[in-house]
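PROTEIN FOLDING TASK:
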Amino acid sequence: MSTVVKIGGKSYIEPGAYAFTKYNPTSVNNVSNFGNVLIIDTVGYGLNLNNAIELTGGSGIDGELNKGIKSVYEFTDIQSFRKFTGGGKLTNLVRKVFDPMSDTNLEGTPGAPKVYYVRAATTVAAKCVIPAATGVAAGAITLVCKNEGISGNTYLSSVLKAGYLAQVENTSSTSRRLKISKGTFEGQDSNGEPYGQYSLVDSTPEVVFYSEEYTTVGQLYEALLKDSNISSHFVISVPQSFDRALLVGVSGTYDFEDGASSYTGQLDNVFEAITELDYNFVLSLEVADSVNNSAILTHLRTNAKFQAVMFCAQEDSEVASAVTDSEYYNNEQVVQTIGSPIVPKKITSGNKTLDPVYLTASVLGLVAGAAPQTPLTFKRVGYSNFLKDYTKKEREQLLQGGVMHVRNISGYWCVNQGITTVQDNLNTVALDGQTRELSIVNIKAQINKELILEGEKRFVGNTIAQSSPESIKNFTETKLASFIATPGNDNLIMSWKNVKVTVANGDSTVTYDFVPNVPLNKVFFIGNMLDFKF
């Protein structure tokens, strides 16, 4: 009896040779988000009022409660970031990253899908001790601030303005209530204007905990353990010999003290923690030519798992100094902006000039909220006035020098062109493989990240038999095909070819060619004028 073989819906019974042609691509899923932004606070950006208060949250990279990757915090909206920091200048900047057109009639324009924030700092948590009536150590309850550093320290100006404050109130001769308040002042800029809604004089504290009456420290301790607001703000500590039966403490006010922040010597620890973090952009809080910016670029070029671009601001409005800084970097992984926005004052008439990093944050938000291949050229920014309106000659100098800037087009301030600091502008792609076009940098980075993330999952850890050269080639071709742009369907690349796989000593090397979906920056209409003939 002959064996029946079914292939392609057809049965084969008789002996013979048969041949087929079919296409069986590997299914792929594009697995990586685009637009995640990392902010490394290298300078204590939340420090305000001569460093008396600090508007930020969590632990520094070398913290008392958390260290390393646990001190890298993740946010997907401005509300959660503002709750984390308590407001201030940093929150205003991040608002532009999440919503680059905020404060305009285009508010709600998509920005970064995710923001990571880390402090390159050593931090010590502020603490407050609530004593027992006897004053003995066995009855003390210590509250340790999760917002480490200066940010937890009590700052009073007639009433609590920043940090935390504990108050024990008498309700009878034998019972007490504990109230813990948090300051709501969000700092002020160099013009004396508040970053938040209220000035230093007008800001009032909010209550984060108000206990029921208690008569023993054990009752208070249980109430603190059960409260969700307490657990989100503090770690509760009691001595090993804690005596729950001790009577309540005397009434009074108890400060949170000894919180400290030091922003020196911790950048390498940040790099160690973020090496494999999935981000596309870094927003620098320092001026373009800083030592820390150079260190960040070195990390991006040599150790970061995924390719990312650092955005930084030129310190002043001078064209020559901006070009000099750009020439220093000469790298597609650095975007340098120039320009200081002007906005109306909040509490008095007139205008004020914002720091140049505000424009940087707005431009970064535009890039992060769009598809990788989307050009920045002629995209509106979230400000309607600037300190300096560059002349055509100055704009051409900035373009030639690799400095991103804005110009007024039909009444709107727009990015002139989305460029990096690469100095070779004779070709779209320079001889060293770098490019001036930011959108092409983003395309390359996104393709690489997609291949890395899905390639690792599919092939790494298998044997050569399980991850054959044919299967890797098949996957790569199918993945590249998923990036092809077609009419009405924009995408990363226009075409690809020449996928080749070589295997040696357990390592597979895949090479391929592709044509990126490049931006159209110039259109020339050339008419041929003819003589009139009748």
In short: The mean pLDDT is 91. The chain has eleven helices and 27 strands. The radius of gyration is 30 Å. The first strand starts at residue 5 and ends at 7.
